[in-house]
Amino acid sequence: MLELEHIQQAHERIKDAVRRTPCLRTRFFHSPAVDDASLSLKLECLQVSGSFKARGASNKVLTLTEEARRRGLVTASGGNHGLGVAYAGRRAGAPVQVYLPASTPGSKAENLKRWGATVIFEGDVWDDANAAAREAAERDGMTYVHPFADPAVMAGQGTVGLEILKQFADVDTVLVAIGGGGLISGVATALKASKPDVKVIGVEPTGAPTLKRSVEAGDLVELDTITTDANTLAPRRSARMNLDIVRRRVDDIVLVEDDDMRDAARWLWFEMGLGVELSAGAAVAALRTGAYRPDAGENICVVVCGAGTDGIT
Predict the structure, then answer these.
(1) Domain range holding 220?
(2) Alpha carbon of residue 304 to chain centroid
(3) Which pTM was predicted?
(4) Alpha-carbon gap, residue 288 to 110, rounded angstroms
(5) Distances (CA, A) of 231 to 6, 108, 141, 277, 279
(6) Number of domains composing the chain
(7) Residue spans of the chain under pLDDT 70
(8) pLDDT tens digit string along 50-64?
(9) Does residue 235 share a domain with residue 283?
(10) Residues 6+ positions from 103 with CB-CB distance below 8 Å
(11) Are 242 and 188 in a shared domain?
């Protein structure tokens, strides 16, 4: 089980590799996201490579031996994790291959190439691309970097939680979008170990309720179909280690529609000038739609997980 000490070690390890992103309180807005509550936004959309994924990828790569780095890194991604691995690999001088599903925005594929990664499209969803990446790792002797079911990756993502507590000590509730569960696993671990009464709320698309269904079933569930456009929140199946952490440390998981994520992303653009991907609108959408209803005076922090344009176009 991932523990606080692992996240603290990751924080020290990656402190010179990633940005300490701002946590901004929303004030004087034309259209507030919530009434009678205090809202702050943890802006991981301003993180190097465009999302929180640089944290976990950097921590993983920095734990590898020099020989493992020389063999090269391979991963599968909806875009953001691949960008994080490409960034971390470039810093470490390691070649990187990234397998992408067909649903990945073209802009992310181009960004991966700019970071020096080799891009290979495989299948319709992340699970298809991931199978191909694992085969390549076995075949070519590369180091496979899992986007969410890896303790080193989760520990890196958990540094988001440590920063929230330093920047917003009075926080009562943190809302986090869920894809495979790496971010919320790390953040929930950091928050619950440091401030046990803080609530952690996960947010998934209605078209990919992977972990909500798994929590309800008490076991891993593989979805038959994915119907969301938020490709970075859309694995058919999570992993046992993520499910175990979520069941123990996440208070609830709520669902939002794609159109509500789009509205939230446009709200972030209109109110703050932030260009975010569709997935980054999920946690804000949970507030704007009432999927999560805060109490009066509740201090809320939303993790705005990634930059992009598909949320506002």
Answers:
(1) 4-52+150-304
(2) 9
(3) 0.95
(4) 32
(5) 29, 12, 28, 10, 8
(6) 2
(7) none
(8) 999 999 999 999 999
(9) yes
(10) 78, 124, 125, 229, 231, 234
(11) yes
